[in-house]
Amino acid sequence: MPSPTADIGLIGLAVMGENLVLNMESHGFTCAVYNRDTAKVDAFVNGRGAGKKFVGAGNLKDFVASIKRPRKIMMMVKAGKPVDDVIDQVSPLLEKGDILIDGGNTHFPDSARRMHALAAKGLRFVGSGVSGGEEGALKGPSIMPGGDASAWEELKPIFQSIAAKVKDTDGKEAACCDWVGPEGSGHFVKMVHNGIEYGDMQLICEVYNLLKDLTGMAPADMSQVFTKWNKGVLDSYLIEITADILAFTDPETKQPMVDVILDTAGQKGTGKWTVDSATDNGVPLTLVAEAVFSRCLSAQKAERVEAAKVLAGPTVTKVTDKDQFIADVEMALYAAKIVSYAQGYALMAAQAKANGWTLNNGGIALMWRGGCIIRSAFLGKIKEAFDKNPALVNLMVDPYFAAELGKAQAGWRRAVGAAAANGIPLPAISSALAYYDGYRTARLPANLLQAQRDFFGAHTYERLDKPRGQFFHTNWTGRGGNTTSNSYNV
What is the pTM of this model? Predict the structure, then answer.
């Protein structure tokens, strides 16, 4: 058998897998490739990979034998059982110290489970989030690896070579890839990234709806607005591609492409996982939750069409000062975006505490600065905030972001008010405003809620005039006793 020649191996030649190995090869690495459908291996090696440093394998045994030790094998397969199936097939062929990397959109508890199970066999496991889509995978993605820390020095030269590059706050070039932490932390951070992505996309859709209904602007005109916004505080990949989408004409109907697309959104589950994690940790991730539920509501197309015939709403009145309204909408989008990231970082802090992880929040912002779907100039300010104060409890109270929210809130409130008056749904933007107002309110009406809980269920309450941690019960009706329910917090 010939000597191993490949620096790394990849299993799964779908869109992301193909482009990742092309990226690796272009940076000087020899890559072994394998796919369950071996015809794909031949097609790739003789097609896009022709004349390049690829080692195609027709079976797993030859694939493993072609990789230098310690073997580094990246799996780009569908999350869930397919990952376990590949691990079961390939792990018996590996030797102590070899490394398996899951680069798919895996639920982070699965990565933790797999790391511990493989460690018991002497194998190293890394769960790595990869963001950037097809183009990012080929030209430079954001990569978020976590798991067995001893594997990082082996993977670092490859991963940091192929990752997107940005200027750090010190002006030096930095790779959008660094070690995240133990167990499933890499996939957890990627999951939160995807949740924020859900939120950003929903915010943009709500702004599009506002501009369409209250200004009467055509998509091409809105494209110019988004292009202008992309040169300011909203400079980001999603704003950029939205401008392109709105300017695109359907070649068949010659209508704006966005106007011929059905208004039902799909989702693959990472947004739901993010919301599930938030409820598990008691973190109010309201904006991402609304983004997830908005996709669910969009899927109820037939019901909405029928409801539109019977449910009344106000008559829509176009704005009289279009320029001012566009400026207000820009501030609403900007402020809500700050809230979305604040909630996302609060979730990461809570999950890290629950799992005993140490996450570098500034480093995560840097990893998201380039390559990934939520990349934006805005993330540089987030990195600065956490670099100045690693213990920052909420991004909104950072001096820079607190000031930005203060400047944006007048326009934000006017935009939300105009939407409510005209019956235009703004679930994410308005929930962001409600969270902002709730977070800055020193005394919320939860005192009444606790009284209600104690009245009907003897759930007890704390008192303003007593130390925290002491619980009391009132016999509200005179018919109850002194027995109370257990006190607990989610």
Answer: 0.93
CA 472 – CA 459 distance, rounded (Å): 9
| Active-site residue identified among 18, 197, 206, 404 | 197
Q: In this structure, are residues 163 and 140 in contact, taking their beta carbons and an 8 Å threshold?
A: yes
379-387 LR contacts (CB < 8 Å, sep 24+): 380/169, 382/341, 382/345, 383/168, 383/169, 384/169, 386/361, 386/362, 387/169, 387/362
Residue 344: HSE in the Cβ half-sphere, 13 Å Cα cutoff: 29
Structure tokens at 27: 């940076």
Region 263-281: what's the mean pLDDT?
Answer: 92
**End-to-end CA, the chain:** 58
- Active-site annotation holds for 52: no
Is there a catalytic annotation at residue 153? no
Out of 190, 272, 337, 381, pick the active-site residue: 190
Return the axis-axis angle of helices 219-229 and 322-355, rounded to nearest 10°: 60
Kindly give the residue spans of alpha helices, DSSP state H, lying in 282-426.
286-299, 301-310, 322-355, 361-367, 378-388, 399-422
Six token digits for residue 371: 């390559």
pLDDT tens digit string along 392-443? 999 999 999 999 999 999 999 999 999 999 999 999 999 999 999 999 999 9
315-334 pLDDT, tens digit per residue, is 999 999 999 999 999 999 99
Q: Which residues pair with 72 in a beta bridge?
A: 99
